[in-house]
């Protein structure tokens, strides 16, 4: 593939890096994540004003910039480099594509301009596993990720033209701060139950949002409880929600891959800086074994970046790119702790934040082996291997 960046992509990367260098960093990101909102609202507003970040991939008719994943990926990479907590992934990566795919013209006209100008943040809430709902780790057509059956998950009841939701979503990205929730719920009764998506306002009656103590505090999460909460159907009653979630999952995996590649690059940069300045029988970076380790990590990071940007051009490869980038981040973060020696194990040093990001993202969107297994199954590789083994 041609990995060269356009002038515009370079401009997005440069502007974002300058803003984040000035206002953010791993330690600053962790501090921002501890605020009630879970992110720096002033910085988010500035990024929206300077770069139009929330609406970068939105059509111009909704106030967006009419760009694609290839422009969003550099933004996610730079955000990942400093472990920036922001509504970018939940709003732009998860909720916006679903509104575009399923929303009625009136709903798109109402919601998307507010997303583009950063006055509205959104997220996706599913009662089951998010990676399964997005078809990253398996087929999502069965709907087990949304509960279903006679009980469990989130159930939707219709009375006339009004809908109410009852149930729980235990792990929702940015669920405590998003102003609009896209909630997956089952309706239709057993055995014709089917998943639909509903809009639920943050201040809806019967809705309780409890912020969780997450492993990675820069990925804030919350538990949602809905007790006959009023909701509005997103799109039409016969919408193919699993299909829309699959398409959204491919794009979200690409953005997550770029984020993980950026985080790996940030961890490696800090490791290189440390070994260059530390002295132990001479500069630590001059030791050949350390140089070899750093060189190996650099190759891992560059390969991960290549995978992420390939997926930006071909989102069907998003899950595989995410697997490679998450594995790279796990490897680089672990080596960064080792290369920092004793201080890398301390709570006060920022090295542990990269380890937490690697572990938390894999728990939320992986694990890596399931991402690869699902991709191989979709490509028919596992069936081919099984048939070949049978013939032997």
TrEMBL record:
This is Acyl-CoA dehydrogenase family protein. Residues 6-117 form the Acyl-CoA dehydrogenase/oxidase N-terminal domain. GO terms for molecular function: oxidoreductase activity. Residues 255-378 form the Acyl-CoA dehydrogenase/oxidase C-terminal domain. PANTHER family: ACYL-COA DEHYDROGENASE (PTHR43884), ACYL-COA DEHYDROGENASE FADE28 (PTHR43884:SF20). Keywords: FAD, Flavoprotein, Oxidoreductase. It holds the Pfam family Acyl-CoA_dh_N. It comes from the Bacteria. Its EC number is 1.-.-.-. Belongs to the acyl-CoA dehydrogenase family. Its cofactor is FAD. It is an enzyme of class 1 (oxidoreductase).
């Amino acid at each position: 593939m041609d990995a060269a960046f356009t002038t515009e992509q370079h401009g997005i990367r440069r502007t974002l890096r300058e803003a984040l260098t000035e206002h953010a960093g791993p330690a600053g990101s962790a501090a921002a994540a501890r605020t009630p909102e879970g992110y720096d609202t002033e910085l988010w507003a500035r990024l929206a004003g300077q770069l139009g970040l929330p609406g970068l991939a939105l059509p111009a008719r909704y106030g967006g910039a009419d760009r694609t994943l290839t422009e969003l990926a550099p933004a996610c990479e730079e955000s990942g480099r400093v472990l920036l907590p922001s509504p970018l992934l939940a709003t732009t990566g998860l909720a916006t594509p679903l509104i575009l795919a399923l929303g009625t013209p009136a709903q798109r006209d109402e919601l998307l301009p507010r997303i583009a100008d950063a006055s509205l943040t959104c997220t996706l809430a599913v009662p089951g596993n998010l990676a399964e709902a997005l078809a990253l780790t398996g087929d999502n057509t069965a709907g087990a990720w949304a509960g279903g059956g006679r009980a469990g998950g989130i159930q939707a009841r219709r009375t006339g033209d009004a809908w109410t939701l009852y149930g729980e979503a235990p792990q929702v990205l940015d669920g405590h701060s998003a102003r609009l929730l896209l909630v997956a719920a089952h309706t239709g009764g057993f055995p014709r139950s089917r998943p639909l998506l509903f809009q639920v306002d943050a201040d809806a009656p019967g809705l309780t949002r409890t912020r969780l103590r997450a492993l990675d505090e820069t990925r804030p999460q919350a538990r949602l409880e809905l007790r006959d909460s009023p909701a509005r159907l997103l799109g039409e009653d016969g919408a193919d929600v699993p299909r829309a979630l699959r398409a959204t999952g491919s794009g979200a995996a690409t953005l997550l891959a770029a984020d993980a590649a950026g985080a790996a690059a940030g961890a490696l940069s800090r490791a290189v800086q440390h070994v260059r300045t530390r002295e132990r029988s001479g500069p630590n970076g001059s030791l050949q074994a350390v140089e070899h380790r750093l060189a190996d990590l650099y190759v891992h990071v560059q390969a991960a970046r290549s995978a992420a940007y390939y997926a930006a051009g071909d989102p069907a490869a998003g899950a595989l790119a995410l697997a490679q980038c998450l594995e790279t981040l796990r490897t680089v973060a672990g080596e960064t702790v080792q290369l920092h020696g004793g201080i890398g194990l301390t709570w006060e040093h920022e090295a542990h934040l990269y380890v937490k990001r690697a572990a938390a993202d894999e728990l939320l969107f992986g694990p890596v082996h399931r991402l690869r297994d699902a991709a191989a199954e979709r490509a028919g590789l596992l069936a081919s291997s099984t048939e070949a083994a049978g013939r032997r």
